[in-house]
Amino acid sequence: MTGTPQSTSSRPAAGVSPEASKVAPTAVRVLLYSDNITTRDAVRAAVGRRPARDVEVESWLECATAAAVFSAVEEGGVDLLVLDGEAAKVGGLGLCRQLKLEVYNSPPVLVLTGRPQDGWLATWSMAEGSVPHPLDPIAVADAVADLARGVARR
Fold it and tell me: CA spacing 20 to 30 A to 91: which of 3, 19, 31, 76?
């Protein structure tokens, strides 16, 4: 490899005070929908409290029914939705599309699809992001962090 080595120092750049380089993380409230408690546990464990240095999960609201999701979204106070596309009765993909069409200014949605080939379904559902099963913890955390950064820019 050629080129100049990149500095990886944790010190702030010249002319920037240490206080200015410390930015408060974006705090988000996440609604997690799945009828399967194992899936909900896997998502919460993958994301954790800090999915990225600049993103912090303030709180989780877990829902096991579509009616609970609609109630929570209509009440407000939720910044980001994670919906399981494999949930029984009402899947997260159909629920996402319904929310996007019926709720004004719906929060961004991450859908969990059944397999990588179901990416087109995530597009159809109007979700802002998707992660396929089996869930890769890094991919889930990265997707939540990316959507949370978008929330901060809203």
Answer: 76
